[in-house]
Amino acid sequence: MTTRSANNERPRAVHVAFIRASAEQVWNALTSEQLSPHYFFGRRLESDWKKGSRWTAYLPDNAGVDTIGEVIESDAPRRLEVTWHVQWLEEARKLGPALVTYEIEPAGEGIVKLRITEEMSPETPQKFRDGGREGWAAILSSLKSMLETGQALSIRMGPPK
Amino acid sequence: MSDDYEIPPDVVYITYIKTTPQRVWDALTRGEETQRYFFGFRIESEWRVGARWAFYGDEGVHDEGEVLECDPPRRLKLSWIAVGIEDARNLPPAFITYDIEPAGEAVKLTMTEHQPKPIPRKYIEGGKQGWAMILSSLKTLLETGQALDISMEPPQ
Question: By the 8 A CB rule, do B140 and B148 touch?
Answer without folding.
Answer: yes
